[in-house]
Amino acid sequence: MEEEPNEIDAEGYRELMPGVRYKEIESGKGEQVEYKQAVICSLEGKLISCGTIFEKFERKMLRVGDGDVPPGLELGLRQLREGTKCQVRAEWRFAYGEHGRPGSKEENTMAIPPKAQVEWSIKCHRLWFREADETMTPAEALEDARNKKILGNEHFHHENWRKAASNYQDILKNLNPWNYQEEERNEAETLYVDCGNNLVIALIKLDEWLKSERAVCDVLTVAPENKKALYRAIQISLHLSKWPESQAALQIAIEKWPNSIPFREQYKTLQEHKRKYKQRKSKISAQMSKQLITPSSASSSSALSTPSATDFSMSTATKQKDLSQKSWWWWTSVAVVASSAVLFAALILV
After folding, report:
1. CATH code of 34's domain
2. HSE-CB for 305 with a 13 A CA cutoff
3. d(C-alpha 102, C-alpha 109), whole Å
4. pLDDT value at position 341?
């Protein structure tokens, strides 16, 4: 059931929530977009303060609920039907936040300054499949993966590593290159490997080395001699001090690319790590041996120091006290034994 629209202001906008306003320029037709459904749209973003256009896309796929766009734009997307043309205005809290967003030459986008209020112009061309829809053909699933890669690359180039990683992980989870034949399989493998390699970099940027190790293994399963994947595998295993794995990957890489300077540099790094490890190990062993053989100076000086007169008197008093206590216990024991003997004799006489 659709919500009742809020009151429209003088500029033709209605408030979706405090800080986000929506203006419908052309009405769409059919059903309103649903959660996790993809929207194929044209998109233009500009800064309200100066009118500068910071990004423009003629065709872009966005899936409602995936969190690939700022909250203000997400709310606008949820209003769409096929053919809808609209504008969404958002305060900085629901746009690109306190720090803004860096620009990207690869994506042809401009930097967004901190705390910038923005406006998006959207035209919905059509509504597409929901996420992982079972009715998708292999070709449509491949198209879905292509679109997710575009979004992942966009986040990657804007240095939003976590969102980029999320998109690439979705692709690797849902795309199985072995489900395709001939040309489509080649494209699926290339897509899988490219997204996997980018995922590895994003996870390294997030300092999630163990996850990056699993991701690079996934890539090498599909493409065992992929140059980028082998380089990252060596980098990760060196960081995790897994030298046998580094050695194995280096052997494959140097046999395949014997004149590669990056791999040669990694080989030198591996040898240097091993050398430093041996030095540390020898140093620790020497320290442990020294501690076991040589007593500490404090205990030695304490054991060999001559007692003072005060220490002697205290020691004597302590010994006398112990002796008196022992004597008391001895005489008490004698008395008890004697009493027991008398009692026993009396019983015999009776």
Report:
1. 3.10.50.40
2. 11
3. 9
4. 45
